[in-house]
Design goal:
The structure is a single chain. The protein has about 375 residues and is an alpha+beta fold. The chain has helices spanning about 40-55, 105-115, 180-185, 210-220, 230-245, 265-275, 290-295, 330-345; strands spanning about 10-20, 30-35, 60, 70, 75-80, 85-90, 95-100, 140, 145, 150-160, 165-170, 190-200, 250-255, 260-265, 280, 285-290, 305, 310, 315-320, 355, 365. A hairpin with a 3-residue loop joins β15 and β16. α4 (about 210-220) crosses α5 (about 230-245). The two termini are about 25 Å apart. It binds flavin-adenine dinucleotide. The site of flavin-adenine dinucleotide has 35 residues, from β3, β8, β12 and β13.
């Protein structure tokens, strides 16, 4: 693409950029142009020159850690990469601290940093890959905590109008793995996230799965009667490392399918054939079914269509066995195979969790098929 982007001061441009190593699924991808943003002023100047030089025709796509995206082989868009760094303490009392974190900070490093400082709340979200600026997009959650529980505000740039906004947690319209940013893709670039964390070492949430047992072990090693937030964090890191493949060893993008929500009637009818079906009651007589269980029951654990195969220990995770060569098409083939097998067996349609990025930079969420 012959776009004169070099008028925009300071922001770093890289044409025909290979993004194969910048997505945890390790899909082959080359983008037309990548713009690395080290600070907010660079975004302002880039947007001014971009509009001036291109007439605003080129699509924009924001890419952070690449742990929740399925990239196309050719990405004919301008890829904006927020790389702003910094963690600022903005307020502090005996009970809480307020911090502001720039979008380019690594999420897991932030969690460790806050716990080490005695600032608590984020410990249950340890080891989630990606950068802080992406965390509000799907309101990341794990082990009973969601980002929205500690988020106070987001500073974000509205790309269509080229204006800065401060959005409260309410403005972000958070839902389960959902937010305004997810529902209006290609619209916002989040540059800072504000959190209010607490300082009470006795307040932990360890009731989920094995967390209590493992955290108690850590606590006893430290001579503590009860688990402290640091013990919960270490427990969750241990559990996740055992359960989930490390994308650096075996490329993947975490849970590939959402847990489907079906009617209670359908659930009861399935229960008559599969007495051990795993379901969680939801409002309005609906039941959430474990997608991993469905995939395992269909005999697809460790299966799929090479090179995209479900993990042998965690059926919900699709792994790439041909890193940097496999393409989005390979993912589509394996994904559609799994979706049709599950539909044939259970009459349930699985929906994808990671973001499907089209060649022109637009995105799709949750669709089945391409
Ligand atoms: C092994 C593994 C485990 C995971 N476990 C969990 C888990 O337990 N819970 C959970 O919720 N998620 C989990 N995920 C998913 C993923 O880590 C999160 O969604 C994470 O927040 C994505 O961050 P990222 O920086 O990689 O974003 P990317 O993949 O780069 O981007 C994801 C989406 O956000 C948009 N985006 C990114 N940055 C910005 C920004 N600054 N402003 C506006 N839009 C932006 C992108 O355009 C894209 O649509 C897991 C993923 C993996 C690989």
């Amino acid at each position: 693409m012959t776009t004169d982007l070099h008028h925009a001061p300071s922001a770093q441009y890289d044409c025909s950029h290979d993004l194969s190593h910048t997505n945890t699924m390790a899909l082959a991808c080359v983008a037309d142009t990548v713009v690395t943003l080290q600070d907010e002023a660079q975004l302002d100047s880039f947007m001014t020159s971009y509009v001036k030089n291109t007439g605003h025709n080129l699509p924009l796509f924001v890419l952070s850690g690449g742990s929740n995206v399925l990239l196309p082989t050719q990405l004919q868009a301008i890829v904006l990469r927020p790389q702003m760094h910094g963690i600022t303490l903005t307020d502090q009392t005996q009970d809480y601290v307020d911090i502001e974190v720039m979008a380019g900070e690594n999420w897991h490093d932030l969690v460790i940093h806050t716990v080490n400082q005695g600032w608590y709340g984020l410990e249950n979200l340890a080891l989630i890959p990606g950068l802080t600026g992406a965390a509000p997009v799907q309101n990341i959650g794990a082990y009973g905590v969601q980002l929205e529980d500690y988020l106070q505000y987001v500073r974000a740039y509205h790309l269509p109008t080229k204006t800065w906004h401060s959005l409260t947690a309410t403005d972000c319209e958070f839902g389960y793995r959902d937010s305004i940013f997810k529902r209006t893709p290609n619209t916002w670039l989040i540059s800072r996230v504000g959190f209010r964390l607490h300082t009470d070492e006795t307040k932990v949430l360890a009731s989920y799965g094995d967390v209590q047992t493992v955290a108690q072990r850590y606590a006893e090693q430290q001579g503590r009667m009860q688990p402290a937030p640091a013990d919960v964090m270490h427990a969750i890191i241990d559990i996740r490392q055992q359960k989930l493949p490390d994308p650096k060893q075996l490329p993947n993008c975490g849970s590939f399918f959402q847990n489907p929500i079906i009617s209670q009637n359908q659930f009861i009818s399935l229960q008559s054939n599969y007495s051990d079906i795993v379901g969680y009651p939801m409002p309005d007589s609906m039941v959430k079914v474990a997608a991993g269980w469905l995939i395992e029951q269909a005999g697809l654990k460790g299966g799929g269509i090479e090179p995209i195969v479900t993990h042998k220990k965690q059926a919900l995770v699709l792994t790439n066995h041909r890193p940097y060569q496999a393409t989005q098409d390979d993912v589509a083939i394996a994904q559609n195979h799994i979706i049709s097998c599950i539909y044939e067996k259970f009459a349930i349609t699985l929906a994808r969790e990671p973001v499907w990025v089209n060649t022109n930079g637009t995105v799709g969420y949750g669709e089945h098929g391409v």
